[in-house]
From TrEMBL:
Its main location: periplasm. The keyword RNA-binding does not apply. One of its GO terms (molecular function) is N-acetylmuramoyl-L-alanine amidase activity. Belongs to the N-acetylmuramoyl-L-alanine amidase 3 family. This is N-acetylmuramoyl-L-alanine amidase AmiC. GO terms for biological process: cell wall organization; peptidoglycan catabolic process. The lineage of its organism: Bacteria, Pseudomonadati, Pseudomonadota, Gammaproteobacteria, Methylococcales.
Length: 432
């Protein structure tokens, strides 16, 4: 065979290799309401997707596909899918077959390259009728007139396909914030009158606006999103607390206003779908303004507690347009616990001991907030005590009478000095 023929064959092989679709990674995530399968691929493409019965299967045909990675074994606890297997039904076609447990409603789409990943094909599997996998039956609700716990929605950032920031030693933000969130949830659940709801309970991704929706479904009184910061300078350090900026609030009001026919319970139970545009805008602005004010109060309480355990990156509460802060009716904050890009703080983030420090600081800030702003109809509000100062009484005597410290009494009532007057009403902290 001549040199020209060899060169022609080599060129043909190179061209074929250049156009071949390579699958060099396959992984899955088990979320509460769906299963996500992710394929790392060499280039964007549109697969042929169809279902087969007897037995029930979902098939993905990848033209000119080549599998260069091992297929994962599916855990028995995963809903919908029994296993994943591959084959070549036709020349030049890679077929991935998902053996199914039940009928599914698939959603298939591609993702462009990001910071850490190349092209990806994503297959989300939902229940055929939109039902989430079976869960334990919820506890029966209390009678309408009964007192209730305050509900704190805790949102560990990132998750699943989104690892968040990654430290020099491989620490992933999604892992450490979930660990802190679980510890905070335990502290809250152990506090009488308080109950925690984790927005993300495991290693899976929850879309940002879905996080808000889950908090609203849980009828949360507060929303706390937990993150770890990152910066190109590895010496950057310290914690920070954010609330929604005015600009972010204005854009969110416009968004809700545009979709008010679908927003029936955004402003204290008042539907917007039957209001004219001016009135709807006024109601939304009032709701967002009040929510931002209480978010600011919560943020200040949490920031003061974080100052006690370490360095603060910003001396005051910061404002930003984070999507997870845009609930119009739930006071919301985002906490950056530490800089994962700082090697010293990365070590602390990996430490269970330091994770408890951050969890306890967040818990104290949330508890202090509710001591001042417990919603009506809750156990914490019912336990709130007030004392009308009689002539001749002193703050120290009142503190001793209720078994609280003088400092706690002064801080709880925002008193700058110990002078009080007869007839003045003091609020007595619980467990102070």
């Amino acid at each position: 065979m001549g040199l020209r023929v060899w060169l022609g064959l080599l060129l043909g092989l190179l061209m074929q290799a250049g156009w071949a679709l390579e699958v060099y990674g396959v992984r899955y995530w088990n979320a509460p309401d769906h299963v996500r399968l992710v394929l790392d691929v060499s280039q964007p493409f549109k697969p042929k997707v169809f279902g087969l019965e007897n037995p029930r299967r979902l098939v993905l045909d990848l033209p000119q596909g080549r599998l260069k990675a091992a297929l994962p074994r599916i855990d028995a606890s995963v809903p919908y899918v029994r296993r994943i297997r591959s084959g070549h039904p036709h020349k030049g076609v890679l077929r991935l077959v998902l053996d199914l447990k039940t009928a599914v409603r698939p959603k298939v789409f591609t993702l462009p390259p990001g910071d850490r990943y190349g092209h990806r094909l994503v297959v989300d599997l939902y229940g055929a009728k939109g039902a989430a996998p079976s869960r334990p039956a919820p506890k029966p609700p209390r009678p309408p007139q009964a007192l209730r716990d305050v509900v704190v929605a805790i949102d560990p950032g990132h998750g699943g396909e989104d690892p968040g920031a990654i430290g020099r030693h491989g620490t992933r933000e999604k892992d450490v914030v979930l660990a802190i969130a679980r510890k905070l949830a335990k502290l809250i659940d152990d506090t009488p009158g308080m109950r925690a709801v984790l927005i993300r309970k495991g290693d899976y991704y929850v879309p940002l606006r879905r996080r808000i929706a889950l908090a609203r479904q849980a009828k949360a009184d507060l929303f706390v999103s937990i993150h770890a910061d990152s910066f190109k300078n590895p010496r950057a350090s310290g914690a920070g607390v954010y609330i929604l900026s005015e600009r972010g609030a204005s854009s969110e009001a416009a968004r809700w206003l545009a979709a008010r026919e679908n927003a029936s319970d955004l402003v204290g139970g008042v539907s917007l779908d039957d209001k004219d545009e001016t009135l709807a805008k006024v109601l939304l602005d009032l709701s967002l303004t009040g929510t931002r004010e209480y978010s600011q109060r919560l943020a200040r309480e949490v920031l003061e507690e974080l100052k006690r355990i370490g360095r603060i990156h910003h001396s005051g509460v910061q404002q930003a347009g984070f999507v997870v802060l845009k609930s119009p009716d739930i006071p919301s904050i985002l906490v950056e616990t530490a800089f994962i890009s700082n090697p010293a703080e990365e070590r602390r983030l990996r430490s269970g001991k330091y994770q408890w420090y951050w969890a306890r600081a967040l818990h104290r800030g949330i508890r202090d907030y509710f001591q001042r702003h417990a919603p009506p109809g809750t156990y914490l509000a019912a336990r709130a005590r007030r004392h009308v100062i009689a002539r001749g009484e002193t703050l120290s005597e009142i503190a001793q009478q209720y078994g609280v410290s003088l400092q706690a009494l002064m801080e709880y009532n925002a008193l700058e000095g110990s002078r009080v007057r007869a007839g003045q009403v003091l609020r007595i902290p619980v467990g102070g």
